[in-house]
Amino acid sequence: MFLRKIKALNNTLLFRLTVLYAISFALIASLGFGLVYYRISSIAIQELDEELMDEVEDFSDLISRNDVAKTREILLQIKQYEDSDEEFYRLLTENGEVIDSSDMTGWRSLNLADNFRKLQEGHASFLYHTVSTEGENQKKARIITAAISDTLFFQLGETLEEVDEYLAIYRQLFVFLILVLTIITAATGWLISKWALSDILMISETAESIGKGAYDSRVDESGLFEETKRLAATFNNMVGRITSIMSSMKDINDSIAHDLRSPLARIRGGAEMALTQRSSVETYGEMASSTIEECDRLMNMINTMLDLAETEAGMTPKTMEHFNLTELINEACELYHPLAQAKNIELLSTLDDQELFRGDKKRMQRIVTNLLENSIKYTEDGGKVQVHATRKKGHISITIEDSGIGISEQDIPRIYDRFFRCDKSRPQGGFGLGLSLAKAYTESMNGIIDVKSSLAQGTIFTISFQQQLTNPLLSR
Ligand code: ADP
User: Whole-angstrom Cα distance, residue 444 to residue 310?
Assistant: First the structure.
């Protein structure tokens, strides 16, 4: 139970951040205190060395002013008050023979001959060493071996007990300080992390409540830090988008239900009639052709929906190629000419000569035909439809302008929504997918689609693309 709690705690960012704070502090503090400790211990040894050197100079002074016998006498006097456990000295000849020494009982196991040999080998005038006695009560001493004259050598040692005690106090103090400060850092780290994570906690609480069905919940962005504010804004946008997708899905479902139900009901009704009534061959023929018509409409709608979904998801790769835009628009105008003529609509096109374009030709054909078809469809008899294509500083725009029924101001923001049809346009038929597809195709080629319209005045659709092309056809 307890272990499980610890394991769960270990998985929290709060706990991990706290541990990280504590570990990094402990490491940095240990390094800092380690450096201070190293400096203190080297200063202590340095001071001891200076003390030893002063004493050596005093002895050498003594010897230079007295002969060996007198020096021995003076040293004997000194020995009376020197603590032999803390300090010792030895006076040696150049052969290593001890002429005089203090009481060496406690220092017997020290290997002093080695130091003397090293000094002679190195031809130095003095040498410092740190040595330890062997056996149970190990003692450490700092020793100086110095040449006083060509024939006399002097060894002076002092216990390191005092320095060690003093360094041990520092060690204990540092360990205690590191422990206490690490605990304080961990506590502070916990509080800081908790405070820093409170924004994220708030976002996750909102996410939880949305998950439980409160789709209107949003994160309050006021008072958040810049980083979490961005996260909250992205989250809110995402939730907003999902909610709007959900509501448009509902609209789509309603529209599909509406648009599929009527043709299917018509097909079924016709077939039922054929079964129950004794109809002539001509009636069967009419019924078959209307069934084909309805099926074509349905297939058209399904294909457009699939195209739209794939384009929006970026699933179908676009084929980028160079093609003649003027030619493409002329062909579309020719295609719709009979339809315009049937409605007595004047169809005009003003195009730059031989305009070259780089993009997906099939998609461009579909965009132009969709917009052109709408213009003719929503323009009353005797109206006018004009197509322009211009290029200015690498900016290509195609406008399709009509003098038709127009689109109301409140409908304009929704005309690119799937299955959206302005009410008044219903008699003209259509699934409300043409503009959605035109927009998706335009955007897939990094273009922009724009509309300007007023009721009973007419509509202007503009698609524009930024393209820096050298036009080989024009430059010919
Ligand atoms: P539809 O198949 O209904 O034409 P679209 O997606 O092509 O679907 O267009 C959506 C709606 O926008 C249409 O139902 C129509 O009401 C309106 N619309 C589109 N183009 C025009 C236009 N040129 N003039 C007036 N209304 C238009």
Answer: 11
Tell me which residue has its CA closest to atom 16 in ligand 1: 422
pLDDT digits (tens, 9 = 90+) for 230-262: 999 999 999 988 887 787 677 667 777 777 787
User: Is residue 419 in contact with ligand 1, taking CB distance under 6 Å?
Assistant: no
**CA angle, 30 then 35 then 41, to 5°:** 120
Q: What's the predicted TM-score (pTM) here?
A: 0.55
Structure tokens at 435: 């503009």
Instruction: Return the pLDDT at 473.
Output: 46
Ligand 1 atom at minimal distance to the Cα of residue 458: 24
Measured in whole angstroms, how far is the alpha carbon of residue 398 from the centre of its chain? 41
- Reading the block at residue 184, the tokens are 């304080």
- C-alpha closest to that of 329 among 312, 310, 352: 352
The finding on whether 421 has its CB within 6 A of some atom of ligand 1 is yes
Distance of CA 281 to the CA centre of its chain: 72
Q: Which of 248, 298, 402, 435 has most ligand 1 atoms within 8 Å of CB, for mutation?
A: 435
Enter the tokens of residue 225.
């830090």
On the CB side of 138, how many CA atoms lie within 13 Å of its CA? 6
- Give the number of residues written for the chain: 476
